[in-house]
Amino acid sequence: MTLEILGISVLWLFLLGYLIIGSIDFGAGFFNAYGVLTGREHILTNIIQRYLSPVWEVTNVFLVFFFVGTIGFFPKTAFYYGTTLLVPASIAIILLAIRGSYYAFESYGSRGHKGYSFMYGMAGLLIPASLSVVLTISEGGFVSMVNDNPVLDYRALFTSPLTWSIVVLAIAAVLYISAVFLTWYADKAGDRTATKLLRKYALIWAGPLAIAVIGIMFELSKHNVEHFDRMVDIAWLFGLSAIMFVITVWFVWKQQHYNWALGLLIGQFTLAFFAYGISHYPYLLYPHLTIYDGFTNPTMAIALVVAFVLGLCLLIPSIYLLLKLFLFNKDYVRGKGDHHA
Amino acid sequence: MENESAVFFSRVLTELTLSFHIIYATIGVGVPLMIMIAQWVGIKKNDEHYILLARRWARGFVITVAVGVVTGTAIGLQLSLLWPNFMQLAGNVIALPLFLETFAFFFEAIFLGIYLYTWDRFENQKKHLLLLIPVAIGASMSAVFITIVNAFMNAPQGFDIVDGQLVNIQPIVAMLNPAMPTKVAHVVVTAYMTAAFVLAAIGAFKMLKGSNHVYHKKALFLLMKVGLVFAIASAIIGDFSAKYLVEYQPEKLAAAEWHFETGKNASLVLFGVTNGEEVKYAIKVPYALSILAHTNPTAEVTGLNEFPEDEIPPLYIHYLFDTMVMIGMFMVLVSAAYVLGKIRGWSFVGARWFRWVIVAGGPLSIIAIEAGWWLAEVGRQPWILRKYMKVAEAATTSDHVDIMLILFCGLYIVLGIGSVVVLRRMFRHNPIEQEIEDRKAGKGGDF
Fold it and tell me: Where are the transmembrane segments (chain A) (predicted)?
C-alpha cells in the first residue's frame, strides 16, 4: 500500500465517520423540529437531547479532521477546491455555525424555543445538501481552468440532474441513518412511543434512499463514463451493501433485532462509501487532480502518518470512554438522574 | 492572475473572522484552567463554594465553547477558501501542527462532553477533577499548535525553494521556528490572564449589583491571584518577544516603535501621532528601546529606513502596541494592588470604585488581546509568509468574496448577540444564592 492510498483511506474513513454521526445529528434536528411543529415534541425531545448533548462537539471534529487532513496529505486540493468551493463551503460553514451554537444556546439557555428548533432542523437538511456539492464537483465537468485558475461553472452545476440526485441522496441518507439509529437508541431507553414513531420514519425514508441511489447510477453512467465503468467492476460490493440495506429494513419492519439493524446499517454505508471511493480512484477532481499529483512530499506524509497513529492511541480509548458513559450506560440512556452541569 | 478586490475582501473577511474567533478562543483556552483550579482548591479546602464556582463557570463555558468551535471551523475552512495558494504551499511544510491541533481539539471535545454530563455521577470529586485535566490540556495544546502555524508564517524555515520547487522539507524544523517559543508562550499565558480577569470582572460586577455573598469574595481573591501571576508572566514573555523581533523581524518592532533612523541610545516612543516621518505629542523614554531590544541602554537598534519601501508594515501598529502594553501594565498594577490590599487589609480593596476598576479589567484584557493580534498580524505586512510569499499572491481569485463577507458579518452579529443574551439569562435566572439554596434542598442545582 502506498502512502497516497493510506492517506486517502484514512481521510475517507473520517469522512465516513462524519457521514454517520453527522447524519444522526442532522436528522435528529429535523425530526425534533418536525415534532415541535406537529405538537409531538414531548415524544422525541428527551431522547434526542440525551444522545446529542455530550457528543455534538465531537461530531464537528470529524469534519474538521477531514478537511485539515486533506490539506495535509493533498495540499493541491487547497488550490483547486479552495478556489471553487468558496460559495458552497461558506454557506455550509454558516449553517454549521448556526446549528452548533444554537444547540448549545437552546439546551443551556432557553429550552423549547420554536424558532430555534425550526432553524436547527432546516439547517440540518441544508448542510448535507451544500456539502454534497463537493461530491458532484469531484465528478468533473463543472470546473474549467481560466488563466491557470480553476473556475466553477455554477449554471452547469445547478442545472445538472446529477447534482440534484446527489442532494436527494444526501438528505434521504441523513434522515434514514438518523431514524434507524434513534429507533435503536429509543428502544434501549425503553421508550416505546418514541421507538414507534422513529421506526415509522426509518421505513418512510428507506424508499427515497433506494430510489436516489438508482438515479445517481443512471446519471453517472452519462456524466462520467470512466467512473461508472469502475463502479460496475466492483458491483459486488454495492450488491452486498444493498443486501444489508434490505435486511436492516426487514428487521426494523419486524420490530426485532435492533442491534443487528444498527450494525448492518453501519456496514451498508461503510461498504457503499468505500466502494464509491475505490471507484473514484485515482481522481480527487476529475480530470484535473489525481491523488498522485496532489500528494504532499514524502517527509510530511510520514510525519502525518506518525502523528495520526499517536493521535489514535489517545483518541480510541477516549472515544471508548465516551461511548461507555453515554451510549452504553443504561441509567444514562434511560434518563435516570440528571447529571449535567 | 491576481484579483485585487478579492485580495482586499479576503483580508477583511479573515480579519473579521479571526477577531471574532479569538475572543471566544481566548476564553476557551483560559477558562478550563480556571475551572480546574477552582475544582482543585474546592477539593483541597473541602469548600463547596469553589466546587460551585467550577460548576457555574463550566456552564457558561459551554456557550463560549460553542461559538469558539463554530468560528474556529469557519477560520479553518476559510484558510483554504480565501488563501488557496498559501495553503497549497504551507500544506507541504506546516500541515503537521495543523493536524495535531485537530487531535488536541478532539481530545478536548470528548472530555468536555464527559465532564459536563457526569456532574453528579461520581461520588468522589477527585475523579471528576481528573476529567478536567484533558480538557485543559487539550484547550491549551490546540492554542500551542495553531500558534506554531502562525509563528511559521512569521519566521518560515524547514524547507528550501529551488527553481520554484519546495525541497528538503523538515516538518519538525518548520514547527520549531524561532518565532515559536515566544509566540506560543505569550498566547497561552495571556489567554490564562484574560480568562482570570474576565471571570473576576463578572464577580466584581455581581458584588456591585448587591450580591454580597462570600462566594464572590472567594472567587475574586482566587482569580486576582491567578491573574497577577499570569499578568507578570505575560509582561516578561512580552519582553522576550521584543528581543525576538529585534533579531528576526526588526521591521515589525521599528514600525511599532516609529524608530526610523538606525542608531544607538534609542528611545522608546509612547503615544503620539505621526504623519509618516514626524512624530508629534509623544513621550520619549530615553534609552528604553535599546534596553528593551538588547538589555543595553547604548545598543544600536535598526530603524525603518533600512528596509525597502514596499516591505514596511503600516505605521498605525504603534497605537496597537501602546494599547496592548498599557493595558497589560495596568492589569499587573490592579491585580497586585488587590492581592496586596487583601493581605494587608487595606480598605480601598472593597471600595465601589475599585470594584468598577476590576469590572473594566475584563473587557480591557480582551481589547489587549485583539490589539496584540492585530499588531502581530499587520506587523508582518506585506508578507503572508515572510520573505517568501506576499499576501496578494496568496489570495483566492474568486469574485464572490464580498458577498461572503456580508454573510459572515451577519453570522457574527447573530452569534455575538445570541451568546451574550443566553449567558445573561442563564445566570440571572439562577443566581448563586438560589443555587446554594437548591443544592441544600437536594435539588441538584439544575434549572
Answer: 12-34, 55-74, 80-98, 118-142, 162-186, 198-218, 234-253, 260-279, 299-323
